[in-house]
Amino acid sequence: GDSVTQMEGPVTLSEEAFLTINCTYTATGYPSLFWYVQYPGEGLQLLLKATKADDKGSNKGFEATYRKETTSFHLEKGSVQVSDSAVYFCAGSARQLTFGSGTQLTVLP
Amino acid sequence: NAGVTQTPKFQVLKTGQSMTLQCAQDMNHNSMYWYRQDPGMGLRLIYYSASEGTTDKGEVPNGYNVSRLNKREFSLRLESAAPSQTSVYFCASSEGPVRNQPQHFGDGTRLSIL
User: Fold this and answer.
1) C-alpha angle A68/A74/A80, rounded to 5°?
2) Higher local confidence (pLDDT), B60 or A96
3) B2/A17: higher pLDDT
4) Pairing outcome for strands A103-108 and A11-14
């Protein structure tokens, strides 16, 4: 079946550091790929998405590019802020939405 | 903007009790979903409703039932709660079931079963 493999956390960074969270997806066909963010006590919010190969999703300084060869969708941000502290989920949608296990990010001032 | 509203936010049950989790969306979305979130496992799909009048099983449907009451509302019922059903439950909706449409989530129901 479909699966999403996401970099395990927790990840702790200092403010203004560079962030990468790896994600790869295994499925029949070419799914749409998403990054969701979950702040404490809240539901998931869509951060960005890409629907086909070479698409780049971007939002709030975060970026991810859909790499067809590896079905990867790594999340990056050049300079993280304390307010970016949250849990990040990679997800893929071939038939239904399949989630990775989540990566807890803590950014220290 | 309400979006997706879930009630209750917290609930404690005893083993064997029943309860219904309520979900309503005000975005005129056709598709609705129920997930459970457990530590280290991401979200797993319990049931979904692609459109009003239809429901289908997801990855982990055992022990649950659902009702798509109308286009806005999609409820999840635990008939005889078990400790293994202790989890955080999320309802979500999307414009349709097509693969590139993002889902919008409620804030969750935190359910503990003793």
Assistant:
1) 155
2) B60
3) A17
4) parallel
**DSSP-derived secondary structure letter, A67:** B
Least confident residue range of A23-32, A61-70, A98-107, B8-17: A23-32
User: For A8-28, how does the pLDDT look when each residue is reduced to its tens digit (9 = 90+)?
Assistant: 889 999 999 999 999 999 887
Strand positions, DSSP E, chain A: 3-6, 11-14, 19-21, 23-26, 32-38, 44-50, 56-59, 62-65, 75-77, 86-93, 97-99, 103-108
Chain Cα centroid distance, residue A84: 13
Rounded Cα distance, B7 and B39, in Å = 22
Beta carbons of B42 and A89 less than 8 Å apart: yes
CB-closest option in A51, A89, A95 to B100: A51
Residue A58 in tokens: 């971007």
pLDDT score of B54 more than 80: yes
C-alpha distance from A7 to closest chain B C-alpha (Å): 12
B97 pLDDT higher than 80: no
Three-state SS for B19?
strand
What is the rounded CA–CA span in Å between residue B97 and residue B32? Answer: 9
Interchain contact, B99 vs A93, CB within 8 Å? yes
